[in-house]
Amino acid sequence: MDNDSAAGAADATLHPDRTSTTRVSLLEVFLLFSQLGLSSFGGAVSAWVHRALVERRKLIGEAEFAAALGLARIIPGANVVNLAVMLGYRLRGAAGAVAAGVGLILGPSLVAIVLTILYRRWGGSPGSRAALEGAAAASVGLLIAMGLAAGAYLLGIGTKSRLWTWRNAANTAVIGAVFVLIGVLHVAMVPTVLLLTAASIAIAYVFPLPRDTSHAGG
């Protein structure tokens, strides 16, 4: 490993929320989101996007992905398409947004047409029902894993420099409030997210955390 590679690896270890400086091509953006669209069974596309862009390729930071996901859920349109467009724009501008959006929906749309034709003929079989139920269960597990990973990041779990502070307690309260209001009480998503986003911004302002030292050891 040369000096530049070693330095890059060390920086990624100390600062996992920093995105990669590697510039991806439009074709790579299109193929990446095409692969995500075709492999994301069960509806958990956002979880697969998180795994591919944040965890594996380090192209998008954890905080940046969380912000994009929140915006994608409160603006009009399909959530996952909104997310793909925003992340594609982040990677390659307007052209990247188009490449990501088209890549995400083109392949699955063609597959959906074929599967619809097949389902009309064999949809009532026990095997097809078992396959659909298995895909749904897997997607739920992946969404839970993504939520736990994002929550651990926000609370600094697993790092040496972040202690259980008032900031972390406030973040926990926000996470709990979202779960109770939307998941339990079924309050409308848009006003809930807007209100708690304002609260999160206030928390980050009152309890600032230096970006460059938030993940460093010691």
Description:
The protein is mostly helical. The chain folds into two domains: 3-131, no CATH class; 156-218, no CATH class. It is 74% helix and 0% strand. Helix 4 packs across helix 5 (79-122). The radius of gyration is 19 Å and the shape is globular. The model is unreliable at 1-21 and 212-218 (pLDDT under 50).
Highlighted features:
single chain; 218 residues; mainly alpha; 2 domains; disordered N terminus; disordered C terminus
Question: What would you say about this model in short?
Answer:
With 218 residues, the protein is mainly α. The protein contains 8 helices and no strands.
Q: Uncertain runs with pLDDT below 50, 5 residues or more?
A: 1-21, 212-218
Largest sheet: none
Give the CA-CA distance, first to last residue: 26 Å
**Structural class determined from secondary elements:** mainly alpha
Beta strand %: under 5%
Write the layout of secondary structure elements.
Blueprint: H1 3-14, H2 26-39, H3 45-56, H4 62-74, H5 79-122, H6 126-155, H7 166-184, H8 189-206
Helix pairs in contact: 2-3, 2-5, 3-6, 4-5, 7-8
